[in-house]
Amino acid sequence: MIKAKSSVSTQRAKKSNPGASGKRGSARSAYSKDEIREIFRRFSVQRPEPKGELEHTNAFTLLVAVALSAQATDVGVNKATRALFAVVDTPEKMLELGEEGLISYIKTIGLYRNKAKNVIAMSRKLIDEFGGAVPKTREELVSLPGVGRKTANVVMSMAFGEATIAVDTHIFRIANRTGLAPGKTPDQVEAKLEKIIPPDYLFHAHHWLILHGRYVCKARKPDCPACVIADICKAAEKTSEMPAPLVPLT
Ligand code: SF4
């Protein structure tokens, strides 16, 4: 009796997280190689040239925008940085502007005081140690104040064309909800996604997943009838078995 009960609850746990099999960190993807390739093939048809939505004018403004976007929306960051980047697009100009000057542009963004402090310290370090240029390696990027692995990955991908996966809240949710790459931490999800995504799809994968999470596989209520991978998806929350028509988005 007890045995049967525990087996039912194990099955329920697996249904709520199809990738779950023991520790989430070591759980495998719930999808076969062919299914994973098909998922990314469809994303590639839907969005042939996916782009990040944070506005920037060069590697430095991208770095600043990504650093400001922690726990904030891209729309909110863009509203604040549009005016800022029109006058400040180098670390030197950022230092001239100073912390209080920067705050006057970004005070609509959450945690703006701390972020302003970091951006000023980051600009100073860029000038002192990197000749005013944004460094290209992850190791150097994460040495900058306020720059974590996610920010470094976004900059490496968008500014320097490296195939990286920057695991944000959307990617973390999709990876676990669908069982594509279950993991307890963003680092675990990142490592798993890098391992399972076919190399030819890896470069655009993080944008595809972010945009899929932002507009379709949303946090509160996934829009499964609008989802191009609905027939493949193994999420317990799925409400449609029919894939949405696969048309390129403009
Ligand atoms: S079918 Fe639903 S739950 Fe699955 S990926 Fe699509 S939107 Fe998300």
Output the CATH class name of the domain at 59-160. Answer: Mainly Alpha
What are the bound molecules?
iron/sulfur cluster
Distance between the termini: 56 Å
- Which structural class do you get from the secondary structure elements? mainly alpha
Arithmetic mean pLDDT:
90
CATH topology descriptor of the domain at 59-160: Endonuclease III, domain 1
- For the secondary structure, the number of strands is 0
> Roughly what fraction of the amino acids lie in strands?
under 5%
Number of helices: 11
Identify the CATH architecture of the domain at 59-160: Orthogonal Bundle
Written as H for each helix and E for each strand, in order along the chain, the element string is HHHHHHHHHHH
Low-confidence stretches: 1-24
Radius of gyration: 20 Å
In which range does the helix fraction lie? 55-70%
**Sheet having the most strands:** none
